[in-house]
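quick q for whoever's on today - can somebody do inverse folding on this one?? i tried earlier but teh output was garbage lol. tokens:
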């Protein structure tokens, strides 16, 4: 989209709802690079992107890095490169036991990629707002062994699985934001003394100054049970998979540097 005006490109990225979060973040890096010569315009653009993608932590991280950098273009390029070379799925695939049964929920690019790479594991995919069906179709199209589990079968699926995998939408200091049903899945696994693995891809680790407002934006409502999102405490997580490796203890998340606490990107723009 090199022939598209930077502002139109930004509008296109802002309206790209339903796309993979990493792809949206990488598109945002390209779009923001077109306005790095104007810091004020870049900040406004970052605010609009964050506003339109309320739970896209990689995008939030990229925007926070861009608006606080001395060289925004170089920083955006670095952030985009890190997203495109994320090895989280490879680490997860390598750690899965041979011939294992894995219980997962909803959709996660890192998780389905790892399951396809292995090829010898069976996935029990618990549905979450229809995303389970998308994951099942992707796995089936890549000849991966899988079956869809209705929410009422969640507990039995966890009991039959060798490991339960939760994908973090965003990672905070003591908990992670995940798709609806993730807390129930992790809690059952913890009670059943089964391992709970948390997948935290590139750009998902946020400082409290950004993580807390993100959680509040999607769950700060009279009916948080209808938000489609859960907050999973790290205290019930056995191990974590990060771009740099895994599995590592959940306590190691405290050593992962988050993006800058650029709270200015959370202010609503007037345009």
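ok took a stab at it. sequence:
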């Amino acid at each position: 989209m090199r022939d598209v005006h930077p502002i139109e490109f930004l509008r296109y990225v802002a309206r790209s709802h339903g796309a993979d979060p990493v792809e949206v973040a990488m598109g945002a890096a390209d779009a923001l690079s077109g306005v790095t010569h104007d810091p004020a315009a870049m900040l406004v653009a970052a605010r609009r992107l964050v506003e339109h993608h309320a739970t896209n932590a990689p995008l939030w991280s990229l925007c926070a890095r861009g608006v606080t950098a001395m060289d925004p273009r170089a920083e955006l390029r670095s952030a985009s490169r890190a997203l495109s070379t994320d090895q989280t799925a490879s680490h997860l695939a390598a750690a899965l036991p041979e011939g294992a049964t894995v219980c997962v929920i909803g959709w996660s690019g890192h998780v389905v990629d790892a399951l396809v790479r292995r090829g010898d594991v069976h996935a029990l995919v618990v549905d979450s707002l229809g995303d389970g069906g998308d994951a099942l179709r992707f796995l089936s199209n890549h000849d991966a062994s899988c079956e869809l589990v209705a929410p009422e079968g969640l507990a039995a699926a966890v009991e039959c699985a060798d490991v339960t995998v939760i994908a973090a939408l965003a990672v905070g200091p003591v908990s992670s934001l995940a798709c609806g049903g993730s807390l129930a899945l992790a809690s059952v696994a913890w009670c059943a003394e089964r391992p709970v693995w948390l997948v935290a891809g590139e750009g998902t680790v946020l400082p409290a100054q950004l993580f807390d407002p993100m959680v509040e934006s999607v769950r700060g409502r009279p009916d948080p049970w209808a938000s489609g999102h859960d907050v999973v405490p790290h205290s019930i997580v056995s191990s974590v998979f990060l771009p740099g490796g895994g599995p590592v203890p959940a306590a190691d998340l405290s050593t992962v540097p988050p993006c800058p606490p650029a709270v200015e990107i959370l202010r609503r723009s007037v345009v």
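fwiw The domain at 6-85 is CATH 1.20.120 (Four Helix Bundle (Hemerythrin (Met), subunit A)). also The mean pLDDT is 90. so keep that in mind when u check it
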